[in-house]
Specification:
It is a single chain. The chain has six helices and 13 strands. The chain has 224 residues and is α/β, with parallel strands linked by helices. It has a ten-stranded mixed beta sheet with strand order 4-3-2-1-5-8-10-11-12-13. Strands 7-6-9 form a three-stranded mixed beta sheet, with no helix packed on it. Strand 10 and strand 11 form a beta hairpin. The radius of gyration is 18 Å and the shape is globular.
């Protein structure tokens, strides 16, 4: 399983039965394939679909069914279609329970930058600003570092900020952080990682939940 799929699978575990969930472009779209058994969620794509299903097989692709990133999707029984204005009315009206977003960076206060890189052309801000302001819960899914090995979890954003609203959960291939009033809290270290390896690749300051320390200590004892 690739690192991106590991992240998407962990994000799926954060969903609850009955959630209306917006999946952003990139890693978030993979979450459609990792909704846990036993729960029912309603996946929303901002181009106007409620009821997105899992990734289609080659023989299931319908060129008329795509998500906001123009990737082919399937739909669940009972899915609905609507125009962009209605889609954003859902978001701005507070009808989206969870948004899962990709980011360029997230700072140690839990604020994100994900819509523009200085000096590069931008088609538009997309729906990220609306999703951050209108969703009950926001989850970030991102690789922990850039291709150059630089941390994407930083002390201060170097890219234009998307919203002053803090996200609730940050999931990478290395770790899971919650965001509280004081900043980032490491709550989980993914298999094969340690607190020290997470620290080494994280520019931002963060606290460590006691439950995370205890979990790693129990794992160490079992291996011995």
């Amino acid at each position: 399983m690739s690192e991106k799929h590991v992240i998407a699978k962990r994000a799926g575990l954060a969903l609850e039965d009955g959630d209306i969930v917006n999946l952003g472009i990139g890693i978030p779209t993979l979450v459609a394939d990792f909704v846990p058994e036993g729960i029912k969620v309603y996946l929303h794509s901002e181009n106007g679909i409620l009821g997105v299903g899992s990734t289609p097989q080659a023989d299931e692709v319908d060129k008329n069914l795509v998500n906001a990133g123009k990737l082919p999707v399937t739909i669940e029984e009972g899915a609905s279609f609507f125009d962009s204005a209605s889609s954003f009315a859902m978001i701005r009206g507070g009808h989206v329970d969870v948004s899962i977003l990709g980011v360029l960076q997230v700072d140690e206060k839990g604020r994100v930058a994900n819509w523009a890189v200085p000096g590069k052309s931008v088609l538009g801000v997309g729906g990220a600003m609306d999703l951050l302001e209108g969703s009950r819960k926001v989850i970030v899914t991102t690789l922990h570092t850039t291709k150059e090995g630089e941390s994407k979890i930083v002390k201060e954003l170097q890219y234009p900020i998307t919203s002053l609203r803090k996200v609730d959960l940050i999931i990478t291939e290395l770790a899971v952080f919650e965001v509280d009033e004081e900043g980032l809290v490491l709550i989980e270290v993914l298999p094969g990682q340690t607190i020290e390896s997470v620290k080494a690749k994280t520019d931002a300051r963060f606290m460590i939940a006691l439950s995370c320390r205890e979990s790693l200590e129990n794992e160490r004892r079992v291996k011995q």
